[in-house]
Amino acid sequence: MSSDREKIFSAIRAALDPLPKRTAKPEWKRELIVCNPSGEFSSLKEQLADKLAFASSRYCDSFDQLAETLKAENSTFGYCDPELAPLFEKLDGITFETEYDVAKVNEYTFGITKASAAIAESGTIVLKDGDTSSRMGALTPWIHIAAIKESDIVATIPEAIDRFGDDPSIVFCTGPSKTADVEGILIEGVHGPGIQIGFILS
Amino acid sequence: MKSKQKIDLVARDLTNEVHEANFIGAKMKSERRYAALGRDYADPDKLRETAGLVKQHTLEHLDKYLEQAEASFERNGAKVHFAFDEDTAKKTVLNIMNEHGCKSMVKSKSMLTEELELLHYLEDQGKEVIETDLGEFILQIDNDHPSHIVTPIVHKNRRGIAKSFEREGLGDYNDDPETITRRARAHLRQKYLDADIGLTGANFVSAESGRIVLVTNEGNARFCMAANKVHIAIVGIEKIVPTDQDLGLFLNLIGRSGTGQQLTVYNQFIGGPKLKDQPNGPEHMHVIFVDNRRTEVLASDCREILRCIRCGACLNVCPIYRQSGGHAYRSVYPGPVGAVLSPLLAGNRFPELADLPKASSLCGACNEVCPVNIPIPDLLLRLRDKAKREGAKEAMKGTPNLAMWATMCSQPTMWKAALTMGHTMNHIPTQLIPHPSAMSWQGTRKLPKFEGGEFRKWFKNRK
Fold this sequence. Notes:
The complex is a heterodimer of chains A (202) and B (463). The longest helix of chain A has 15 residues, at 2-16. Chain A has 202 residues and is an alpha/beta fold. Chain A contains 6 helices and 12 strands. Chain B folds into 3 domains: 6-28 and 295-396, Fumarate Reductase Iron-sulfur Protein, Chain B, domain 2 (Orthogonal Bundle), CATH 1.10.1060; 43-292, NagB/RpiA/CoA transferase-like (Rossmann fold), CATH 3.40.50.10420; 406-461, no CATH class. The chains are: A alpha/beta (202), B alpha/beta (463). The interface between A and B is large, with 72 and 101 residues. Strand 9 of chain A pairs antiparallel with strand 9 of chain B.
C-alpha cells in the first residue's frame, strides 16, 4: 500500500510543480455564510422554534404537550437516555426502556436522547457521540426527541463548529429523515425518524 | 433529426414519459435553488466565488493537505489507505472486509463506488452488498445506473418502481410513493442489522481535524454506521478542504444548490471509531483515499473541475441535460460536469467520450449556478480543442469539413469576393444545395435573406 501512497504523492507534485503560481487561501469572515434571519426574534429560543418548524421539525418545551403529541401519534413505548429518565418519567401514559435492545428495533416508537447543541439560524439539532447514550436510540424510532438545554442554543453554524472538540461522530439534524427520490414527491421518515422534535429544557 | 452525435440519438429515442420525468425533475430543483439562495443571502455569488477559491487553493496545495489529512485521521484512531487506481481501490475494500471477517455490506451513496463498479466486484468475490439510499436501492434491484448525481432515479416513475417492488417480493403492486418508502424502510432496516460492515463515501474531508463529512437526507449513512462495527469511507483525493470552519461554507452551499434546502437533513462529521462508552457504532474506521486518474486531471488544463462538490445544480439548469437525461452521457458523471470530468477520467479511453464536451450550447448557466464557480464552458472548449487535436472520431461525427471555410476566412481577397457573391444566394434555391450539413440545417430552418457586404463601403465613406 505504501507504494500507492508514494505514487499518489509524486503524481500530485508532478502535476503542481509546473504551476507558475498557486492560488492563495481566501480570507473570509464568518458573517459571509450567516443567512438572513427572515423574521425578527427576541431570543435565540424563539428563532430556533421558528427555524425548527421551517425545517419540518417540531419545537416543544412542555412535558404535558410532549405526552399529548406522543399519544396522538400512538407512540407510548420507546427508549430514553438513562440520565434523562428522571425528567421524562413524569410523562403521563408513556413508558420507555433505558437500555436499547436491538431485538426491539421495531417496538420502540420514540427515542429520547441529549442534543449537544442547537443552531438557531438553521433549526438544526446537533448530536455528538459523547452526549448520545445510544446512536440506535436516536436514529431508529419513528419519533426522535432531542433534549436541548436552553444554554446550548447557538446562533450560527460557525459557532456550532467551534464546539466540535475531538468528538468522533457529530450529526447535524435539520428536519426529519426524508426522500424525494420517487417522482420528486417529498416523503418523511425513510431510514431515520419521521418526526423530529427539539425539546427545550429551561 | 439528422444528427449523428450519440447524445442526440439517445435524446431522440427517449420515451415521452422518461423525457418528461427528466425535464420536470431538473427544472423543479433549479427553481428551488434560485429561491433558497435568493431568500437567504444578499449576495450568494460571493459565497460561490469564495468556495471556489478555497477549493482551488486546496487542490493547488494538495500534497500538503493530503498529508495533513492522513496524519489527522491516524491521530483520531482511523486507519488510512491509499489506492492509486481502480484495481487497488477495490482490492483494498475486499481486504478490509476479509481482515475483519465481514461477509455482507450495507453502503450509502457514493459516486466513486460507481466509478469503480465496486458493487459487482464485491459480489463476484462472494460478498453481499446492499445499496441503502432509496434511489440506489431501486437501481440495484433493477440492475440500472444512476441518471443524476443527487437524484439517481429521476428517470423513473412510480409505476415502474411499484412493479420492481412487486417482482422483488416487497408486497403487492402499490405505486403510492409513501407505501414504496415504508416498504423500503422495513426491508432495509433488517439489512442494516444483518450486515457486518458499513461503507460510505465522503462529501468533504477536513484536513485540519481528520473528519469526513457525509451529507444525506434519508439517514441511511447514519444507519450503516450505527448498526455495524466496521466503517469504510472511500474518498476521492479531491474532497479535501483545509479546516472545519471551511466546511460551514460548503454545507451552506451544497443543500441550497442541489435541492434548495438550507441544509441537507443530515450532515455527519466522522473523525474516527466510536467512543468507548457508546454502545453502538464502528470500532474500526478505515479511510481509503483514491486517485483513479484524479492526479491526471490535476496535471491537465482542466484541473478546476476537481473543485466539484457533486451538488447537481449544473445538471438541473442545463438545457441539454433536460432534453437528454443522464444516461445519454454514457458515463458515471452526466450533465455539464460530466461532459468535462467523464472524458478526463476515462484516461486512454478519452476518444470514446470526446463528443461529450460538444453536448453544450455554451450558454454559461452551469458556471452561473456552480457553488464552486467552475468555469465549465471554458473547460468544455479546452476539451473540444483536445478532441480535435487528437483527431477523436467520436467528436467529429456529423461535423462538416471546415477547411474551405477556414481558407476563405484567412484570405482577405477571397472573403471580399465571397461577400459580393453573397447576393446571388438570394436568387438561387438554397434548399437544393447538395451538401449534407446544409440540407440538414435547412430541414428545420429557413436561410434568411443575405444583406451583408456593405460594411466596408460604409466604413470607408463615413464622415
